[in-house]
Predict the structure.
Amino acid sequence: MIKKICIIGSGVMGHGIALVCAQSGFMVTMEDVDEEFLHNGMNKIKAFLKGSLERKKITQIDVDNTLSRLKTSTDLSKAAADADVVIEAIVEDIKIKQTTFEQLDQICPQSTIFASNTSYQSITEIAAVTKRQDRFLGMHWFNPPQIMRGIEVIRTEKTSQDALNTIVDLCYKLGKEPAICIDSPSFIANRLLQVWRNQAFNIYDEGVTSFQNIDIALTYIYGIGRTTSRKILHQLNIDPHRKSDQLDEQEENVL
Ligand SMILES: NC(=O)c1ccc[n+]([C@@H]2O[C@H](COP(=O)([O-])OP(=O)(O)OC[C@H]3O[C@@H](n4cnc5c(N)ncnc54)[C@H](O)[C@@H]3O)[C@@H](O)[C@H]2O)c1
């Protein structure tokens, strides 16, 4: 049974994942290379809880209980030593991820399940540096973790059914919906996103319409959500919310 979760990395994703786990009743240690990063991560967690309290989504007791379940550390061996699950959310660099998991493999009990939050690296290649490839998978959260309901759970050829079931069950306990897939480039959601992104570019490039109108179609016709629509358009280096005096000639022609 999972009781303790160690989150490696306290950045954009790490602090949000730590918050969700602590709010769901798990004992959490968030680890990072520097106290300053941990301090920033904890401040963001506290600010989110404060906002939820002000909006009466949670009570002061919920805030206190969540914070009482959260610890921070810059010492990997202490942070991960008795973790049932380790979720890695550090920089998107396969070498750094592999080095970290090599260390974790020495530190953690054989039973500990390892999960990487990588967006684009091969789970199989990261897992290969450990001696627990049967207990290694991808757990790909989306930003912000406290809000986004879906998590991709990525299994390799060596991931055991038992480890997969445990992580799927964990997703439900965290109030999330797991989307399971085999290890493959970009998994599910980012591949789907590429289709929207390519077509958004084509539609603009052919002069069909402005990015503002593409944003409206994505958000209000397909209901994919403003955040995702902005993500697609920002990846094309276009801000759909520019003021009209910033529109280029092509956009003015079609508006
Ligand atoms: N930002 C997103 O929208 C998003 C969404 C899904 C998945 N991801 C993935 O999540 C991972 C983290 O992304 P992020 O946006 O949170 O990055 P980030 O840069 O905000 O945070 C990374 C954190 O990891 C820490 N770190 C670096 N090396 C470390 C080490 N060896 N040990 C411990 N901590 C270390 C850094 O100090 C930093 O605080 C990446 O693999 C990324 O691809 C990001």
Q: What stands out?
A: Residues 8-14, 31-33, 37, 89-92, 96, 100, 117-119, 141-143 surround nicotinamide-adenine-dinucleotide (CB under 6 Å). The first strand starts at residue 4 and ends at 8. Residues 35-54 form the longest helix (20 residues). The mean pLDDT is 93.
